[in-house]
Each structure stands twice: as structure tokens, then as C-alpha cells.
Amino acid sequence: MSSLTLIAPAKINLYLEILGRRPDGFHKVAMVLQTIGLADRLHLTGRPDGQLTLTCAHPQVPTDSSNLAWRAAALMAEQFPDSHRRHGGVAIHLDKHIPVAAGLAGGSTDGAAVLVGLDQLWGLGLTQGELQDLAAQLGSDMPFCIGGGTALAAGRGELLSPLPDLEGWGVVVAKHRDLGVSTPWAYKTYAQQFGQRWDAGCQPSHAQGLLTAITQRDLGAICHALHNDFEQVVLPAYPQVQALKATLASAGVAGCLLSGSGPTVFALTEDRPAADQAAAVVRAQHPDVDVWVTTLTAHGIQVQPQPV
Ligand code: ATP
Fold this sequence. Notes:
The chain has helices spanning 68-79, 81-87, 106-121, 128-136, 142-147, 183-194, 208-215, 219-225, 231-237, 239-249, 272-285, and strands at 3-21, 27-47, 52-56, 89-95, 150-154, 159-162, 170-176, 227-228, 255-258, 265-269, 289-295, 302-304. It is of the alpha+beta class. The protein folds into two domains: 3-165, Ribosomal Protein S5, domain 2, CATH 3.30.230; 170-295, GHMP kinase, C-terminal domain (Alpha-Beta Plaits). The strands form two sheets. Strands 1, 2, 3, 4, 5, 6, 8 and 12 form an eight-stranded mixed beta sheet that branches. The protein has a four-stranded antiparallel beta sheet with strand order 9-10-7-11, sandwiched between helices. β1 (3-21) and β2 (27-47) form a beta hairpin. α1 (68-79) crosses α2 (81-87).
């Protein structure tokens, strides 16, 4: 029976600006997205009975049709009914390592992995653009997760322009163990507090400084230009996240920021040893915080080679 293992990396936001509200209810954003080494693993196995099943041991991850991995498989079956009939269903097992509801696109990357995995298992030969179009039907962050790396995201997040790779710099990812922030809550709260400025029309983006710094691969300038509009609502509502960010900022890192709608905070460093040192400071001062040390990466979903 055919099977496949996929590695599905998390993302951080080096930049997130909320520029307006669209008639379809989504927000117009400007984001710079970056994949990191922290990743989920998904095992896909063909099922001759045509069924779709999902298993995951993580207590916060739903295993029904609300899971983005499940929804991605259902979309593929709907879009490619002949291949579904010919190859049968799929059993998905999700090894969850990315923290849930953390602003790291954990669900989106799992969905992206299932699109890439079924494309391969069913021999469809879809292009990256075609996979991204399918992903856009399921979530705004999902098209980026297919190819990963460093990219500017416009529209509601699905219009991607690749940027030069920033692979190799260290990153510390820190998140309060028992805290999750709902992305819909963060958008709603931001709109209540700052949405009046959209009445005059969509705001222009201010991302140019960061884009120039990325092109020059200048870590100091990149860290100077890090920005996330959600900090204005999430940090006041969650003082413990504000305190965590202050600890990271004083731990010898080049820069730090809330990722997405949080509550994860990340910090960038020249290299991995510097990230290890900053992580030790956070662990000593915040026993209720989980900390990961990894690097920025240049790839999205990867198919793990099968042992021969
Ligand atoms: P984003 O950064 O894209 O806003 P997030 O990292 O904040 O996303 P997720 O980890 O994707 O958030 O989880 C948000 C909610 O989505 C969870 O509370 C969970 O109920 C649901 N969910 C659906 N599919 C998954 C999945 N594969 N993994 C984790 N959560 C999932």
C-alpha cells in the first residue's frame, strides 16, 4: 500500500500590517512570512476502502472535519474524483510538534502537507501554483505554507511574492504553555480599537524598509523593521506575553516580535549558539513557557525520502 511522510514547518511573521476590511469579510494585510525549523510530521497511507481518517494524539487538535488536514484531503477528493476512486481513501496520522493556536500557522501547514502528499500519492503532477490555488480555498496562510521560505503576502495573505532566503539565522520561539489566542478574536479586537482609520479606505503598507533590509540580508536592519499590528491588542490583553517579550529583548537577541496573533513571541539571533543562550535566559525566568531553538529555513512542505 502506498504511503508517505511529510514534514510541515511552522511560520513566523516578520511583518504583519492590517490595512483594511474587504467586502468579503476578510482583512487586507501586508505580511512577511518566514518558515522555521519547528515542524509537524504527517504520515499518509492509502486506504483501499475509500475512507478518509485522521488520528492525532494531541488533546487540543480536533480529528474531525474541522481539522485543516482533514479538510485538505476532502477538497482533493472533491476536485479529483477519478483519482480518489482509482487510488482509494487516505489514513492521515498527525505527529503534532507545533504549538496549537499559537500564531505559527500549525493547522495551515498540516493542510498544505496533505495537499502536497495527495498530489504525490495520486500522481497528479500539480504545479506549485495549482497547489497554492487549492490551499487558498482553505485558509489565508495555507498558500505560503506550500513553498515556505521568505515571502511577502498581500491580499488576505494568499498573494505571494518570494523574497531572498534568510536561511540559517537562529530563532528562539517562546510560548506560554497553557495560553492560546484566537485569531478571530485578535482581528475583531483590532478592528474595534483601530478600524475607524479604514473608513477613509485601505491604508498603504509600510513594509518597504523591511523588504530592503531582507534584500541586503542585514539582520540589524531587519530587526529594526520587525512589526506586528496585533501587538497593539494582544500585549495589553496578555501582560504575561508582554513580560516574556521584555525578557527576550534583554537576552542578547537581535530583535523580537509577537508572531501572528500570538501568543508566541520569537527572537532572531546571528546563529544558533546565541539563540541557545537567549533560550536559557527565558527558561530560567519563565517556567510556564515552552521554548524552542531552531533556525530560519528556506523551504515549505517536504516529502521525507522513504527508507530503501
Ligand atoms: P494562524 O497562525 O494561521 O492564525 P494558529 O497557529 O494561531 O494559526 P492553529 O494551530 O492552526 O492556530 O490552531 C487554531 C485552531 O484550529 C485550533 O484551536 C484547532 O481547533 C483548529 N485546528 C484545525 N486543524 C488543526 C491542525 N491540523 N492542527 C492544530 N489545530 C487545528
